[in-house]
Amino acid sequence: MKTVIALLLLLAVAGCGKQAGSVNAGATNTSGSSTESATVTERVRSMTAGKTAAKTITVPASGLIADALAGYAGPLDRAARQRFFKFADHTAMLISANNEAALVADSATLARPIQFALTPFNGWEVSHMRDGAKAQAVYASTLAAAGAYANNVMTDLASKLSADVMKNPDEARKSIVAAYEKLPVDVLKAEWIKALKTAHSARKSIDLSGSGNIHFTADTSDFVGDGKGITLVKGGQTLFGDGYLNGQKIAFALESTLASDIGKTQKIEDRSGTSQGNATDAGVKVGQ
User: Fold this and answer.
1) Within a 10 A sphere around the Cβ of 213, how many other Cβ atoms?
2) Is residue 25 very low, low, confident or very high in pLDDT (cuts 50, 70, 90)?
3) Burial 226-242 (b: 16+ CB within 10 A, else e)
């Protein structure tokens, strides 16, 4: 009886071995090579699976928008700043005369308030402050209007582009300019007029204590002008400036060069022809 059982066991083991490794006659088994190829692919996938987050980097929207509009409108040099103040004074005059509809401006001119709001300040500008309290109030009103206008326009641009993943900063700037140019000039003019009208009508308190920064309040809003540009705080919350747009830090997503290279590597490895099972050079699959 024991001999019969032993023979049956030997036959069973022999049968399993034959089935697992059986191939057609004349075929050279390349099971090891195929397994190695599969292992390489799995390693690449394992490496890239943990790098999904590296495919994009986030960049503050405010900085890219500022750069894009600066390139679009040109540098805000001394002459451009003077033209901007003349434009603001002209707008205020039309508002006083209830003739806002007569304001003539193009998209480049209406980008200047945004540039001005993001320009670093090194204290009060003497040329705008030496002519008394009225001139000081006008200057503060222009700053407040620029900050409020920049906040509204930049938030609108950021909301339209924040869902996109852009290739690089240069492509992002092109997208920003394209989105800005799609904004109707009449809409931009209306936003600028509203911001300046609100700023001029607000009750202002100007801080001339010599802190080194521009500081004033307009109704319930607090404005600071320093190396980061204009910051607008209301109710203890930063609404604009220091990277904030309408109270939020909005970022744009850009592709990473490193992540793009990894993606190409994964595609190459996936095209290596690796398949389930072990191939032989006779075209027969074994182990199925």
Assistant:
1) 16
2) very low
3) bebbbbbbeeeebbbbb
